[in-house]
Amino acid sequence: MKAIALAIGAHPDDIEFQMAGTLVLLKEAGFETHYLNLASGNCGSLEDDAKTTRARRGREARKAAALLGANFHPSLTNDLEIVYDLAILRRLAAIIREVKPSIVLTHPPQDYMEDHTAACRLAVTACFARGMPNFRTSPPRRAYPGDATLYHCMPHGLRDGLRRRIIPGAYVNTETAHSIKLDALAAHQSQQSWLQTSQGMNSCLREMENMSLELGRMSGKFKLAEGWRRHLHVGFSTEDSDPLAAALGKHYLLNRSYEKSLETRE
User: Fewer beta carbons under 10 A from the terminal one: N or C of the chain?
Assistant: First the structure.
């Protein structure tokens, strides 16, 4: 059975910021990889209207997915319209059943904007419903058995919406994939001025690189890294399932202090 990984982001460029290095390494490890942004990016401009922006950002996302070597899936909704909604859930669950991923990469449960948080919730439930024949998808797709292990990337700034520092449960060495990750993020040319004006990011390429360097420093081992937290296995996989570790070998570093902290009460 072919190993398959699916990255689910909220907007065009979210995957490139926090997940693309890991996706490239999985591709190199023999996985079939898939790329999905739930929203079209239609609000990401101060100059162009929504229709023009949606089309441009769609083209940029397709180019980025091609650079990453991933299969592209069209967006399901528009910016700020990613809500925990049955219609969107049915469509996302249909994609999960079509792709049948054993690894799903997605947003953290807490982040600085609601689209990211809602995208995470939708990804979790859509994966949970993969084996439920009585849950109808749109379009209809047959339920299937099998593990689907979810991993949550790091929030922007490595903090949640209440400013709490978020620590990875594992680090992935992305140094060898960094140039591809940079090229894929650079494909989102329309976002350079938008992010600087709207969110204070002087350069999205520099922001991504700084985050990779900080995670590498935190790992104590890698120069450039992405951070991940593994979702609870119940309803998704066997208890000891950690397919990222199995696939990436020396490029994967478990944060044992994080694992130990899971057993303590605050």
Answer: C
Q: What is the pLDDT of residue 196?
A: 57
User: CA-to-CA distance for 192 and 174, rounded, in angstroms?
Assistant: 23
pLDDT digit string, tens, across residues 229-260: 999 999 999 999 999 999 999 999 999 999 99
Cα of first residue to Cα of last residue in the chain, in angstroms, is 42
Q: Three-class SS of residue 103? A: strand
- Beta-bridged to residue 105, according to DSSP, are 7, 151
Rounded alpha-carbon distances, angstroms, from residue 214 to 176, 203, 207, 236, 259: 17, 16, 11, 31, 20
Find out whether 190 and 57 touch, Cβ atoms under 8 Å: yes
CA distance linking residue 66 with residue 77, whole number of Å: 21
Judged by DSSP in three states, 70 sits in: coil
Residues with pLDDT less than 70, the chain:
193-202, 265-266
> What is the rounded CA–CA span in Å between residue 42 and residue 27?
29
Using CB atoms within 10 Å of the CB of residue 263, give its burial: 0 to 12 exposed, 13 to 18 middle, 19+ buried. exposed
Return all residues near 256 (Cβ < 8 A) that are at least 6 apart: none
